[in-house]
Design goal:
40% helix, single chain, 9-stranded mixed β-sheet, globular, 3-stranded antiparallel β-sheet, alpha/beta, binds iron/sulfur cluster, 15 helices, Arc Repressor Mutant, subunit A, TIM Barrel
Length: 374
């Protein structure tokens, strides 16, 4: 089954570390954008028309800036165009300041059954440094309200490796989030991008990110804490209670098809890959119809290599025979000497048929991938 991704490119403010494509500013009314989205979805043609989709994901940006009725309109369009089975995952990313009882009721009534709350930290000084438009208390209130409202699957996103972040307060924050009853936690290690405000502050020496070794050690401790509390570390950055893995994101890691709507949204269908141009003004001017696409046409061998790398992100790793079955001669098994070196270094385990990252390998995944797919 295919995954459907809906991009919402608005945010109230741009967080200091964020380099996503989005338009930041208060008081925007996404009404015209929702019209354009509905038009783009309605324009889906055969063979995608009517295709079963068991995961719909509203990502961004800040999808919680959409009113429940707007989410409902988009979902109605999606239901009209795709076959959405009962039990499909309908997920929405939310910022804490947008979450209240009325909106939660509305989103759930519209069909949303999974909510990811962008907590990032439970320390107000770090939230201010990141220019997050909410406090720690607001983040905790949002999670508690979502739990009370009966969201079936509730997650929190957190960042590790921030300038000024301390071990004790970070682990305490994670424990607090768990105590609030979340089913899923995404732990992202901070990446400093030069084009961002934080990147400029780091370049000027005004902020000092956590050094790699300390961040890795903190990550391992955080992972251990979550595992002790019943979470499965199922993907490099993701932890879930049983039955709460992200079905939509799993499409990316298991080489399955997904279709994206909205500017900058990516799609991957039957081996073809493309993205919508990251131009909101153009998208709105066209009303979502005839959206400019950027085609990306990877060779089968490139796709096979990407499938290997994506699959290794998952705890269960990759069965190479499955990739060989899918890609035939276009799949090149990883060089045996690289596998042996990585196994010897404690970064990889398995044999010539089944490979998976070790716990340490997950922290150094980029180095492992570079060796396996030179
Ligand atoms: S809310 Fe998310 S998408 Fe928006 S600026 Fe912050 S990190 Fe980026």
């Amino acid at each position: 089954m295919i995954g459907v991704y809906v991009h919402v490119p608005y945010c109230t403010v741009r967080c200091s570390y964020c380099d996503f494509y989005l338009v930041a500013g208060p008081g925007r009314d996404p009404g015209a954008y929702v019209d354009a989205l509905c038009n783009e979805i309605s324009a889906v043609e055969a063979p995608l028309l009517g295709r079963p989709a068991d995961a719909v994901h509203f990502g961004g940006g800040t999808p919680s800036l959409l009113q429940p009725a707007q989410v409902g309109r988009v979902l109605d369009r999606i239901r009209a165009v795709f076959a959405i089975p009962s039990g499909a995952e309908i997920a929405l990313e939310a910022n804490p300041e947008d979450v209240d009882a009325a909106r939660l009721r509305g989103w759930i009534a519209a069909g949303v059954n999974r909510l990811s709350v962008g907590v990032q930290s439970l320390e107000d000084d770090l939230l201010r440094m990141m220019r997050r438009p909410h406090t720690a208390i607001e983040a905790m209130d949002a999670i508690a309200a979502a739990r009370r409202a009966g969201v079936s699957s509730l997650g929190a996103d957190l960042i590790l490796g921030l300038p000024g972040q301390t071990r004790a307060r970070t682990l305490n924050g994670i424990a607090q989030v768990v105590d609030l009853g979340v089913d899923h936690v995404s732990l992202y290690l901070l990446e400093v991008h030069s084009r961002t405000r934080l990147g400029r502050e780091v370049a000027l020496g005004r902020r000092l990110p956590m050094d790699e070794e300390t961040a890795s050690a903190l990550y391992e401790e955080a992972a251990g804490l979550l595992e002790c509390r019943g979470f499965e570390h199922y993907e490099i950055s993701n932890f879930a209670r049983p039955g709460h893995r992200s079905r939509h994101n799993s499409k990316y890691w298991t080489d399955q098809d997904y279709l994206g709507f909205g500017p900058s949204a990516h799609s991957y269908v039957s081996g073809r890959r493309w993205s919508n141009a990251p131009r909101l003004d153009d998208y709105l001017a066209r009303g979502g119809v005839g959206t400019r696409r950027i085609e990306d046409d990877p060779s089968r061998s490139a796709r096979a290599a990407e499938a290997l790398v994506a699959g290794l992100r998952l705890t269960e790793g990759v069965v190479l025979a499955l990739l060989r079955g899918r890609y035939g001669a276009d799949f090149s098994s990883p060089p045996p000497e690289a596998v042996a070196d990585l196994v010897g270094a404690g970064l990889l385990e398995g044999d010539h048929e089944h490979l998976r990252l070790t716990r340490r390998g997950r922290l150094l995944s980029n180095e492992v991938f570079e060796r396996l797919v030179p």
